[in-house]
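Predict both folds.
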Amino acid sequence: MNKTLYLKFLIGYMIFGFFGFIAVATFTTNMIREQVLREQAKMLYEEATLVASTCAADLYNNEATLETVKYHLDALDAYLDADLWIINPSGRMVLNSKEKIDVDKEVIIKGFDPTVTAGSYYTTGKFFKYFDKEMLSVFAPITSDYKVKAYVVIHYPMENIRESVNDYAMIAYIQLSVTLFLS
């Protein structure tokens, strides 16, 4: 009788552990992913808004040169480990932090639509098929005389977000393992 009761407890414990790991692998990892994505998007949006209201706005108010704004974008690129663009509403790229200034080279983002965020300030994907990998893209409008002149767009690789999610999920797995071991 004791052996069958012990066996039932052991089987129940194993089932509990199995479903615990399934829960962490699905629900917890998805919740962590959404939280990390929202936090990263919020931080990038704050940076994009700051750029849009300062040096990028100065560009459209003729108070700064392209080179000055490019210098600021390059500095932020290095700090954020992200691509920073200034793109006008028709999809023409004005500045790109990853490329040198070349006014003769016109880069057009085909199908660019700033409303793609659908009420949010960020989107994920390949940004109108421009990138080969998935990116978190954050938009902030540059306004002058109450009109949108362009957008500051910051692109952050989704693989960096996945790495952060995996790090946090590993903590959840370790915590679950310790809990199971102690129980």
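Second protein follows, with its predicted structure tokens after the sequence.
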Amino acid sequence: LGVSDDPNHTIMTDEGSAFMSYFGERQRKHLLCSHHFKQKAIEVAGITPHELKTEFLQDVSFWLFHSWKSIHSELHFQQRFSEFQEKYAIFPSAVKYINKLEENKNSVIAFYTQNVFTAGAYTSQRAKALNAMIKVWGHLKKEIRNYNLVELMQWVDCVTRSIMEKTLSELSSIINRKQGWGEFVKHKW
């Protein structure tokens, strides 16, 4: 859990994370949770006309996860993204969402994050799993604040071992299955 300023390291957080203010000032790459952007898109889609709901979600999914496959330059990105903006320009909630997506494009849109090494994980997966492990899936969350120093250190030691075991197991699984990393990160392995 150490903090370093190594620009080769990547931090993944929720948009409103306390880490954001610290890591935002550092040189490393900072990715935002794509899951939250997807969830917000579902909310926005709920107030657009029914016939556009599925299309809006497909468009958002393209930008978040697949845009690196078919967009090859900054100019091409701008052209395609402008078309996306124009398509939903009459829906205020969609406009607000799309503007937020554009504002955070370097941290969440696949075209911009394609060269960032994440061991095959999207920004929601690994961070959420570790967060849940640290809190022992919620049932100790409220109890931890009442621990004395010895109890706290024993708990940290136990959870740290659990995190390392699960993380190594997941990483081993990713490597063995050659899961989902592209040519652009092969050299990292």
